[in-house]
Amino acid sequence: MADKRATIVIVHGAWVGGWRWRGVADILIDRGHHVFTPTLTGLGEREHLNSPAVNLSMHARDIANVIKYERLENILLVGHSYGGMPVSVATELVPEGVIQSIMYMDAFYPEDGESLNDLVPGEPHLPTEEGDYLVPPPRADLVGFNTHMDAAARAAYEERRTPQSVYCYSEKARLTDARDRIPQKTYVLATGYKNDTFRPMAEKLRARPGWRVEEMPYTHDLQHVAMKESADMIESAIP
């Protein structure tokens, strides 16, 4: 157990929900921490709320409202993959001083005016049918960073993924310097796969004052393949 009990908010990536971080959250809770893994609107157990109104701004508000209504203070805020987008915008909505540490775990790091579709290499995330607003998840067996899954794990994973509003990917983040004023800032790069998406972000932040950049030798799904190590890394950023 860590010497200091922390309040930790972990934000999941695209097409999944808070359930994807249950294993890591359980480890951190067993170590004495206060852990929240909110599911963003339209995803996971909240898929029935999907609509064209769901966008990046709404997901940022989801995070800010958990912090507000749970009256959380001295927070370590963690974003994984897509979660880096709403985590960034949420820093604009939370009073200064509430978030004392922020961690991006193999996550998108937008600058002001950038959308996820501006940052992702190759084709942007778009609906498969004209006039639709939902972007279906890519098949796990076609995504290189999911090759660690056996057939049973892949089936369980596929069953619980849900399509996501395109406006989560196309809306541009509107940022001032709220994120920069957070005292502790960490970026974690997964190096166990051909990481063309997140490596440029890690390298950019490695050269930026005030940032700690760490590496983990695992695939993108750190929370699945390295639960204990992911918990350890999160603990390393406790304010």
UniProtKB/TrEMBL annotation:
Q: What is this protein called?
A: Pimeloyl-ACP methyl ester carboxylesterase
Lineage, top-rank taxon, reads Bacteria
Originating organism: Sphingobium lignivorans
Which residues belong to any copy of the AB hydrolase-1 domain?
Answer: 8-228
